[in-house]
DNA sequence: CGGAATCCTGCCGGATACTG
DNA sequence: CAGTATCCGGCAGGATTCCG
């Protein structure tokens, strides 16, 4: 009977751990959320700024993603009483707590891309 | 001009970092992948075992998710030449490299759940 | 400028039936 | 046991239009 137990750490406790991971995944899921958070990590942005920087997103999606991020407290929305009305979005302190996760994911993803490339090269070379 | 720069670390580098994060998200996305990985973190499992343990998943989805996980090298699939044929799925060493990510996500998710609960309590209490 | 409303589409994922 | 094939509904997400 082999027990891997995830290296030598505890395995994922099915009931609560897994649910927590799914919660995080749900919050981060959506085609643009990561990108938006990334953009806001550089500083505050207005709606229009995000439209330009995210590039490819539509106003509906941007609005929706922004709302979901705000509901979860990851970003803040501030309406400026200027003339045509401007709105500033900013990453909250709470939103910054995602940094460890995002960093791990970026790290793993880059590593993975290298691995995949190596795998393909090997197959092509030997095939 | 306020630059938050994500605490005092570098912000997410748009081109490569973001793409890497999305790669990771894609690999982990899907309603059952996390759960399957969690199950396999306890040890090897057969198809039928996973059907029972994941609970709620159908054979089509399980098969599909398993294939995707295998393609990415996260799990291994071993056919045993027994009588009615049995297949063993196991988390690979590479799959275990996801542990830091999953752990961070579990941690954050649990923290978040507590925060959300506190927020609701506060609103209910003061409203 | 910053959205909301509407319409339309693909694919994600579920149920069921069939195969080897 | 371990899948595959097929059909089907729902929702994520895109394009367009309209509003304050």
TrEMBL record, chains A, B:
Residues 14-117 form the HTH hxlR-type domain. The keyword Transcription regulation applies. It comes from the Bacteria. Keywords: DNA-binding, Transcription, Transcription regulation. The keyword Transcription applies. PROSITE patterns: HTH_HXLR. Pfam families: HxlR. GO terms for molecular function: DNA binding. SUPFAM superfamilies: Winged helix' DNA-binding domain. This is Helix-turn-helix transcriptional regulator. It comes from Larkinella humicola.
């Amino acid at each position: 009977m082999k027990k891997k137990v995830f290296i030598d750490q505890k395995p994922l406790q099915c009931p609560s751990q897994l649910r927590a991971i799914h919660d995080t995944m749900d919050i981060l899921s959506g085609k643009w959320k990561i990108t938006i958070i990334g953009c806001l990590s550089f500083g505050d942005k207005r709606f229009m700024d995000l439209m330009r920087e995210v590039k490819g997103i539509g106003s509906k999606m941007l609005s929706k993603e922004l709302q979901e991020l705000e509901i979860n407290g990851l970003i803040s929305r501030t309406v400026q009483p200027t003339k045509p009305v401007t709105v500033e979005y900013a990453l909250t302190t709470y939103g910054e707590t995602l940094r460890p996760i995002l960093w791990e994911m970026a790290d793993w993803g880059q590593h993975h891309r290298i691995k995949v490339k190596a795998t393909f090269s090997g197959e092509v070379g030997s095939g």
